[in-house]
Amino acid sequence: MKQLLSDPDNRRIHTILRKGVNGFHPLIPVMMGLLLFFACENDIEKINTLLSSQTLPDLTGKNYEIIHTDSGKVKVRLLAPEIRKISSVERPYLEFPNGMTAYFYDDSLTIESVIEAKYVIYYENEKLWEAKNNVQARNLKKGNQLNTEHLFWDEQKRIIYSNSYSRIVNEDGTFYGEKGFQANQDLTKWKLIGSKGIVKVRNE
User: Fold this and answer.
1) How far apart are CA 114 and CA 151, in angstroms?
2) pTM for the complete prediction?
3) How many Å apart are CA 187 and CA 87, to the nearest integer?
4) What is the C-alpha to C-alpha distance for residues 20 and 24, in angstroms, rounded to an integer?
5) Cα gap 123→109, rounded to integer Å
6) How far apart are CA 123 and CA 96, in angstroms?
7) Domain ranges of the chain
8) Which residue in 167, 181, 176 sits closest to 195, CA to CA?
9) Which of these, 153, 159, 151, lies nearest to 188 by C-alpha position?
10) Is 156 in a helix, a strand, or coil?
11) Conformational region of residue 187, where left means phi above 0, alpha means psi within -120 to 50, and beta covers everything else
């Protein structure tokens, strides 16, 4: 299945599901089972409470790929083994429970930077990505590497940032942001918050 969307910046977003997508979940058998379970008590309030306490996905998919293009050129490619779409909440989101890898391309279609995380959420209305658990970002051209446990990527502003303890390693040394960092999405420019570090001394 292929779906073409558009955003306010007129950038095209191609969403491709590479393998079978499981449509809407079979909620009817689940609900019938709950009704039978509580039938002896005839307590509808308990049923409603149980159902409302669960956030069930509207859509699930396997081996998911998203390609962002700008003026016909691929800018970002996202790969994830699993996706869940949650719409029936105040803040709709896509969940990637088994993590995601994001590849950022330059104008010559060369991979410029890579971000990996074990768990990711995408808030659709805000175009905001939230990555958790062993988050690693690398700029392949400059050799910069960033590690943190919690990272945000603002798709519209094209920046990544964190409010959590972060580490950046580059050719100049190892630097730490006690209160996080802010950088452009290709990691060519970055700023640590509450920084300290160890600088390499070059012999002349």
Assistant:
1) 13
2) 0.67
3) 32
4) 13
5) 27
6) 12
7) 2-20+59-199
8) 176
9) 159
10) coil
11) left
The one-letter amino acid code at 116 reads E
Give the SS3 label for residue 46: helix
Amino acid occupying residue 185:
Q
Instruction: Identify residue 61 by its one-letter amino acid code.
Output: G
Q: Where are the beta strands (DSSP E) in 31-188?
A: 59-70, 73-86, 93-96, 100-105, 111-117, 119-123, 128-139, 145-154, 159-162, 166-170, 173-177, 181-184
Q: What is the CATH number of domain 2-20+59-199?
A: 2.60.450.10
pLDDT digits (tens, 9 = 90+) for 67-76: 988 888 898 9
Residue 169, both tokens: 């390693």
| Close Cβ partners of 147 (under 8 Å, ≥ 6 residues apart) | 134, 135, 136, 137, 166, 167
DSSP state of 106: -
More confident position, 32 or 115: 115
What are the φ and ψ backbone dihedral angles of 99, each rounded to 5 degrees? 90, 180
Dig out the tokens for 14 from the structure. 């191609």
- Return the closest-CA partner of residue 152 out of 181, 195, 118: 181
Q: Half-sphere exposure (CA, 13 Å, Cβ side) for 113? A: 21
Q: How far is CA 15 from the centre of its chain?
A: 15
> Which has the closest alpha carbon to 150: 170, 167, 130?
130
Q: What is the mean pLDDT of residues 177-193?
A: 86
**What tokens does 104 get?**
């950022």
